[in-house]
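user: can you give me the structure for this one chain? tokens are fine.
assistant: on it. calling the predictor now.
[tool input]
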Amino acid sequence: MKIKLLLLVAVLYACGTKTVSEEETYDRITVTTYENKYDEKNRLSEVQWTRTSRMYEKDAETMEVTENKSTDYYTYTDDEKFTVERKSKTSGNIEMMRYAPQSEESLTLNAQGDTVDYSLRKYYDKRKRKPVYVRNINNDYVLLEDNDYEEKNEYDGGGNLRKSVQCYFDTGKKRTTYFFRGLSYEEAQKRIPRTDGDYDIVCNIEKISGDTLIRESIKNGIVSHIKKTIIEKNGKKEFRFDADMKLTGSFTELKSDGFDIHVDCIGSDFIDSTYYKNGKEVRCVYLSDTSKDIVLFKYDKQGNIVERVEKTKYFDTRNEEDLINEMLQVVKENEKKKENRKRLKIK
């Protein structure tokens, strides 16, 4: 991707220029620093963070951009429940986030008090991997028809998903999905309540072949995807296939040199490698056919982040003018939809 396209986006935040003298091998470097303050119980009480982005072009000037500065304020109900309030010095938006052992809630208001974004998630357990209830409203970037939706999930005693109901308020659509383990599609059909007229049935079948666990997912009687998992001494490997057994992605989990490493491949276009140390991300590498990103993290002695550095290199070979026109068209469509949408107002 040409740097001129990046500069077109960056003019919204421009605050000065600087001559290229460092990191010429990257097109953009974004540094976020966090100044953490703690209360008498050694809990976070305030976090001041600043994000600065620099864009580089060889033999040219570099635009230096300070994208945002903000302060997070923490208040605690107890050691497990707390609220974080943040006000952006750039946009003026106020964001409030509430955290509890089995729920997360966030609300973003603009300077006029309108709801920009709202999200509520309640979970099956404290690991927060299985949502029981989801409510989402997004009035800021309206390009899709599913920005205002609700989801309700039911699990069995073993934590396996049994039923999911999704309601899309923009379109009025409602969809119910039933999940079964070890049943054929014909057997599963007999267990669906007759009152449900519009639904999907997903049957998950597992079998073991040698050292490989094979999970076959059948949706409405048709194989949708297959996952093969191989457990090894220092980790595991997962391979995802479509119904025609074409490889669509893979996931590798391993331990090496004191790191827990996760490598996620999506098709042939994207590779995500994440390195963990003591449960914390310390390095991420994202590689696609258009760019490479390297993200580095630093933490204080309490284990809270103090710095995040992201370095990006673009190698998009598409026509520069086409890319700019494509981006401008997306912006125009977004503005048109925002004008036609009713915005929620907090009283």
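assistant: here you go. The CA atoms of residues 194 and 248 lie 36 Å apart. The first helix runs from residue 3 to 10.
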